[in-house]
Amino acid sequence: xxxxxxxxxxxxxxxxxxxxxxxxxxxxxxxxxxxxxxxxxxxxxxxxxxxxxxxxxxxxxxxxxxxxxxxxxxxxxxxxxxxxxxxxxxxxxxxxxxxxxxxxxxxxxxxxxxxxxxxxxxxxxxxxxxxxxxxxxxxxxxxxxxxxxxxxxxxxxxxxxxxxxxxxxxxxxxxxxxxxxxxxxxxxxxxxxxxxxxxxxxxxxxxxxxxxxxxxxxxxxxxxxxxxxxxxxxxxxxxxxxxxxxxxxxxxxxxxxxxxxxxxxxxxxxxxxxxxxxxxxxxxxxxxxxxxxxxxxxxxxxxxxxxxxxxxxxxxxxxxxxxxxxxxxxxxxxxxxxxxxxxxxxxxxxxxxxxxxxxxxxxxx
Length: 365
Fold this sequence. Notes:
alpha/beta, about 30% helix, Metallo-beta-lactamase, Chain A, 14 strands
């Protein structure tokens, strides 16, 4: 069967760096790069991009989902590389797109290297920025809102997050958020999160899933650009670090628009590296999937959380597959044959820690 969509989750430590390709009938595939991981990810991303044929290196869209250092750090060297000028459009909400743009742009934009690169500075050319949105913000409006972006001879792309309210929150907290991102770029580790990883027995997944957890409230995560990509019958949700309730409401909005009770998808890249604060039952029920992608090595925040994966396994349709881009002590526990047999799922791991994981979705239309 022909492949419709290829999702490559590169090894990006605690962050995200995804390469998505949608196969066309002829010529090179439509290609989207989502985030660059933390600063140390760039050599791996550069090596991966160098494998593309010289005349097929065009990237249609590069998405910088939000300003956290584990998503944006590797984008800085990318923007200074030979690949930056061969991108059709960059999707990113920077100071010019926030509700009080005059105040924010005047105070921080000049010192923000990513935004400076996107605006065009002495170090490089002016790059296309949010052209698909008329140069304005990537903003779905109210909760349950979404934006469909037409792609000639390509996939159907739907923006699920962020809402206008989430951008307002980011606006108020921009300076603090970008300062935190800079500390990550500079290799700083907060002492409150540099702690040993304690692995608890999995056992009864219903009990694990039922543990009470607070929702994510961080401004950068809430501003994440999350997407639904559909092509030749294949359907994938790329959750970035978006809030579970925001993603779930948008997916239900899309489903209602299409006259469906829920939006069944082939793949769901779990938001916030499968954090229990973002992977909610309401999200999983809004978009039941066959494949669930996890992007993290767990070396800082100890993701994926057991509660999140337990919710996935118990909520998903029969026989889901968990796709990890790292095999670690934390993720390897989910390859237990006893758990497989009891709960009817399976797990997939990369062949090498240098390769990440690749999911190919077949064409059905």
